[in-house]
Design brief:
InterPro entries: C2_dom, C2_domain_sf, C2B_MCTP_PRT_plant, C2C_MCTP_PRT_plant, QUIRKY-like. It comes from Aegilops tauschii subsp. strangulata (Goatgrass). This protein has about 400 residues and is mainly β. It folds into three domains: about 35-185, Immunoglobulin-like, CATH 2.60.40.150; about 195-330, Sandwich (Immunoglobulin-like), CATH 2.60.40; about 355-395, no CATH class. It has no helices and 26 strands. The strands form seven sheets. A six-stranded mixed sheet has the order 9-10-3-6-11-12, with no helix packed on it. Strands 13, 16, 19, 20 and 23 form a five-stranded mixed sheet that branches. The chain is elongated. The two termini are about 45 Å apart.
Amino acid sequence: PPQPRPEDYTLKEITPRLGGFMAAGDKRTSTYDLVEQMPYLYVRAVKAKDLHAKDGSGSCDPSVEIKLGNYRCTTRQFEKNTNPEWNQVFAFPKERIQSSYIEITVKDKDDIIGRVIFDLNEVPKRVPPDSPLAPEWYRLEGQKEGRGGELMLAVWMGSQADEAFPEAWHADAATVPSDGLASIRSKVYLTPKLWYLRVNVIEAQDLVPSDKCRYPEVYVKATLGNQSLRTRISASKSVNPMWNEDLMFVAAEPFEEHLILSVEDRIAPNKDEVLGKACIPLQNVDRRPDHRPVHSRWCNLEKHVAGDGEQKKKDVKFSSRIHLRISLDGGYHVLDESAHYSSDLRATEKQLWKPSIGILTVLRSTGTSGSEQGPSSTVSAQNGMNNTPGTCMILVR
């Protein structure tokens, strides 16, 4: 019989499409599918033509100002140029938008040459794998007759997976002065630091079902953000049910969310009664970097009744309780991208990372004769090396 071919362990060049798109049956997916989508309003100011100064001199120092509620962003300014080209992209987080329209103004220093106004309800939405929105020419309004001038731009709604996101400037309006925000910062997208939230539901005590003539069928529903899990119905059908069941969630720093626990009784098919709820801030949950056990805790269940169309707390002399063991596990790596693309498999807890042994510096240079030299690499100890432009610093572990 033919002998099997020996394994080939030689180095091979691969070209994975990191962060790109790949076919998966009839669906096109990307690594951004594994993180929560963050909607943004994008504005790309490309160029202008036939601009004229307000004073009639024939030349101007143009710039573009983009105003959206309390946001105010400005492109760079050209000197004595009636056909400037900016090609700058600005990104506005959707959750902070407090206006129904966006105003884009072309200025000559402090004088207004003209403006374009967009109604946000009419802005198109582009989500990959949709093709990017092509810019169009818009006539500048508010000018005096005969001065002319047009602005090429594109305005659309997208997400952090948009092709324009890496080059966009992000308008930051955390603190807005009285005259609006005039400062901008470069776009920096930080992958959220993820932890596993382990919820061990042990038992409940002194539950009060509405119908005391039947054995309750109780389960626990846990909700964290848009994640929702539930335990099985307790085998001990009593007012003191037991589960001893683990529920696993993924939580992101800085842990501003709350874990909502709801103890419910299945009184009929597709009909459940809430016996009590507990709200636990993630900031109060212990972080566990290793296998050490976590101390359990008893949490009171708040009883709610419906009244006047609203949920109101019911005054009771005692409270039902639920027994839990909760921890944020940092001894694992929470995958936020496809496993075969992931380049960082370190544990979430930074204390468990292996120390670096040096720095790999990758240099790229171009020859003076016009021919491009190949990439070179060096490994050096971490001894205060200066970072130079065009240098990629990679820690070696």
